[in-house]
Amino acid sequence: MTTVLRAHAEDQYAEELAILAKNDDRVRPPGWKLSPWAVTTYILGDGDQITPKYIGPRRIVEVAVATLATDRALLLLGVPGTAKTWLSEHLAAAISGDSTLLVQGTAGTAEEAIRYGWNYARLLSEGPSRQALTPSPVMRAMAEGRIARVEELTRMPSDVQDALITVLSEKTLPIPELNEEVQASRGFNIIATANDRDRGVNDLSSALRRRFNTVVLPVPATAEEEVDIVSRRVDQLGRSLELPQTTTGLEEIRRVVTVFRELRTGVTEDGRTKVKSPSGTLSTAEAISVLTSGIALAAHFGDGVLRPSDVAAGIVGAVVQDPVSDRVVWREYLETVVRERQDWRDFYRACRDAG
After folding, report:
1. Residue 24, Cβ neighbours under 10 Å: how many?
2. CA 345, CA 333: separation in Å to the nearest integer?
3. For the chain, how big is the Rg over CA atoms in Å?
4. Which of 91, 98, 179, 209 is 20 to 30 A from 215, alpha carbon to alpha carbon?
């Protein structure tokens, strides 16, 4: 695994999953590797051997896990950067031991990605047969009793989305060309994710929406919570990318998080000043990306200490998505908010120079 840039969750956290499985004496739903209690512990951590994968309200995770223990599919909904994909991967890893049965939704996703395709060379030479059929990740999950993941469900065309209706309601996938069907084995379910900024792109039909339990993932409630999330992920990414050791100042992390939260909410931390919001989302995931890039700069081109100059360019790039309107928003925020903070003078100069 040393040559893999990013290991799957079930591989990266195999030791933690093994510890939980060994000590798990609670009831496990059919086909599950762990009990719902152990899955929740794996996601949230136990303060000892099990590290937290998701930092947020416990009840949200409990509802998501309980949904997957029923015959209802799970839809994780939220703004970009609220860890929808991250949570779905870890849920699949803990429940099935396999997070790789994935359908990536795009405007070009075809129905074969949900149902099945054909090996056309064999189809032409042999005719329709099981050997000529190419199963989709959803079909494989049904046959093996595992969790299938569907990313960005609302990015798919509506007719492709509706291919899931029979799968979710009847727990079967017909193959009319062979006069056969694949029935779901125990343990099968689907976790879908959707970005609520995509509303109106390809809205789910009422028939499909009824077959999901929807769990909305919120943005971090407090600055401290977001700083904690960013710190943990930056540390994990630094180790997985084998970046040279740097001194990651909590002060710089807090500054980046504060800037993102204030621009995202449209008001300063003390509630006294309203600010304009840029066109981008300025999510927690983007803050992690800015800081990881800053650490790389500090490690390879600096003195190994994360400084304002290392994160300034990344912040400007994240905020200024529209070169006209966002640049005005950023300059106004820089001059009216950042400049007035006495202990942010070095940060102000670095951002001004970068912009």
Report:
1. 18
2. 14
3. 23
4. 98
